[in-house]
Structures are given as C-alpha cells and as structure tokens.
Amino acid sequence: QVQLVESGGGLVQAGGSLRLSCQASLTIFSTYTMGWYRQAPGKQRELVANIASGGNTNYRDSVKGRFTISRDNAKNSVYLQMNSLKPEDTAVYYCQAHWYNYDYWGQGTQVFVSS
Asked: Which residue from 16, 63, 66, 107 has the fewest beta carbons nearer than 10 Å?
C-alpha cells in the first residue's frame, strides 16, 4: 500500500520559514511528478508547487520567489522550503504523487502563520 507521510508543519510568525518533508513508499519514486498542495478553511485545494521526474519545477504565482520545491530520489522524498511566510499561507499542506492515472495523497500537515 502506497503511503505518503508529510512532516514539518507548525506555527510560525509572519516572515518566518518552515521546511516541509514528504516521504513516499513508492517503488519507482523517481518517475513520479511530486507536488505540494494546500487547502485553507473554506477554500478549494490548490497547487502550490510541483517537480517533475526530470527536475522541472512549477509554482503558483503567489509563492514564487519565496518557496522552493526539491526532491531526493535516493530517499523517496520531496521537500518544500517556505520562506517569508505570510498569514495567507496558512493551510493544510498535502503531498501528492502523480504518474499517468495514478494519484496518491498524504494526510496533510498544518501550517499556521501568525501576523
């Protein structure tokens, strides 16, 4: 059974930093596009950033220049470095693994940014 386990969330003041980690129990992790999504209360889940198997990255406009996604295929892990955090970044952050018709999700980790 595939499992994605996120960690690294928490409470931080505006302007601070957090690093989220996601470890996946995937046998061919390197072939998956890995993504970070977030969902704030009362809002739809939205893509924050993703990284393809070849390393190409994609970010939503509101996090460009502040967040960095990276992956370590040897550790079956993907990371999200979040700097200059803002209150509007408050959400539950989810890790996703995508490959063709396969999508797997983690349970989520809460990020709360106080003003």
From this structure: 107
